[in-house]
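seq as requested:
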Amino acid sequence: MSTATLSILIPLYNEEEFIAELLRRVVAAPLPDGLDREIIVVDDSSTDDSVELVEEFINAHPEAKIRLLRQVPNRGKGAAIRMAIDAATGEFSVIQDADLEYNPNELGKLMGPLLRGDADAVFGSRFLVANETRVLYFWHSVANGWLTLLCNIACDLNLTDMETCYKAFRTVLVRGIPLTSERFGMEPELTIKLARRKARIYETSISYHGRTYEEGKKIGLSDAFDALWVILRSRFTSRIYREAVPHVLETLSVAPRFNGWMADTISPFIGARVLEIGAGMGNLTRKLCRRRKLYVATDMNPEYVEQLRMAFRHRPLVRVARFDTERPEDFPAYEGAFDTVICLHVLEHLADDASALVRIGTLLQPGGRLILLVPNDPSAYGSLDAALGHQRRYASGRLKDLVEKAGYEVEKVLDFNRISTPGWHFTGKVLRTTTVSTALLKVFDRLVWLWRRIDSALPWQPMSLIVIARRRAPRPVR
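struct tokens:
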């Protein structure tokens, strides 16, 4: 049986009374079959004997796969969690406080929806019906309730316990989120940004053995006010991706009319059995997959593949797979299986675009169509291209020659989206920005009805070129 790894992330600050016992419980906690564990302790510059106790435990239990990281100077729980996430090697991660308020024996309960593939994140709720919960501060529970309510309003969820410290998640998903909170603001920031990334969040009841301030509880009133600010900041920030490419793809998701324009342009050339290479988050897939006998949406990025699986899990004629045009070993399983291959905004990212076109041809039946969209005009290359990982932009003549040499007969070369050319030049060549404004794109999208009518009459070069080409049938052997 193949195994997955759970990274148990333990932020640590001055918990000498509890840390050794907590580690013992975490190591002994039962996990579902096929799930291994690693333990990452991040010490946030403790001033007591916490570090020495962790080191003693590691030396006494070398088989336990425990790593101790040091954060200097003291920066807060949120910063410690960020360090732990970056260091995690497991497919899944869970935050485990260094005190004994949360029971490690319930780790398996949190992992259930993740292992089944139903969830991207699971929160352990102290307020769902649980086996046992220690009764403590009234006003503390009121503050938790209000913060959860405000967070739910901000991200349109119905959580019962946003402030829970027991949060489990797919590691690669959270690692791709730019988290900035230093202290306890990590809880609302992570929640809201997960929601804005359209993550599937589940809750499960957990027991809770809270402690009093006399027993070492650290969160206070100032942290509640900090959480309010974090909720506002996280709701309105545009930074929910660490990298530029997914940020732009997410931005394009608010432009359904523009995506519809692109889909309408290529739809007349699409057949019944289709492979889409580089489907990303599925912005175009949703519009192109209708009325097909088979539609296979692929991407090389495992996070996009997971998002595609989630988005199309109820569409029986849509299949999702990981596929990399630069890996020849990915091709044999699909040879000659399709009458159409759609390749939008992919070729410009590849180091060897000529070889990739030849390999893509093997996926097509003889006479099958390749639909290729690439950025036009090498002189337009700017900061946005660099941020998106474009290795080049294309000229029409050079692109046509490239496609024909790869074994295709070019039927059409279509100009697409002239209206965006001046703005692209200005932002990428003059302002040298690396992101696309969501607000401006929404305005642009509302006027697509106008752009579609005037685009072909504009006197400058188009933003993109669309090539429609057929795979040449092999010559008969004499």
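The longest strand covers residues 364-375.
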